Amino acid sequence: MSLLSFDDRDGEIWFNGKLVPWRDAKIHVLTHGLHYGSCVFEGERVYNGEIFKLREHTERLFKSAEYMGFKIPYTMDQIDAACRETVAAQGFTDAYVRPVAWRGSEMMGVSAQDNRINVAIAVWEWPSYFDPEERARGIRLDISRWRRPSPETIPCFSKAAGLYMICTLSKHEAESKGLADSLMYDYRGLIAEATGANIFFVKDDKLHTPTPDCFLDGITRRSVIELAHTHKIEVIDRAIKPEEMADFEQCFITGTAAEVTPVSEIGPYKFQTGRITRTLMEDFDRLIRGK
Question: What is the distance between the alpha carbons of residues 118 and 183, in angstroms, rounded to a whole number?
Answer without folding.
Answer: 33
